[in-house]
Amino acid sequence: MTAPDLRPAALDESALARIRSLEETLGGPLVAYEPESPYAHLTADQLAALQATEADLGLRLVAYRG
Q1: What is the pLDDT of residues 35-55, one digit of tens each?
Q2: Residue 3 pLDDT > 70, yes or no?
Q3: pLDDT given at position 6
Q4: Cα dist. 60→20, 40, 48 in Å?
């Protein structure tokens, strides 16, 4: 599996203020990123079906976004 891609985070004023406060506490700049996963977001039913197929076939499956 690959690691999620990262992109700069879109921050509202409240989040930005919290990060600025933390920068003051830490004494240096921070950069906020949002993970952007290539993996599919599965419902509980979809995940159960995937896991059942894994168990039946004795392997691991990875669901990617389409």
Answers
A1: 777 889 999 999 999 999 999
A2: no
A3: 77
A4: 42, 15, 13
In this predicted structure, what is the pLDDT of residue 2? 54
User: How is the chain split into domains, by residue range?
Assistant: 5-57
Note whether 39 and 5 are within 8 A (CB): no
At CB < 8 A and 24+ separation, what contacts does 37-44 make? 37/4, 37/5, 37/65, 38/2, 38/4, 38/5, 38/64, 38/65, 39/4, 39/63, 39/64, 39/65, 40/64, 40/65, 40/66, 41/65
Two tokens, residue 23 = 């920068």
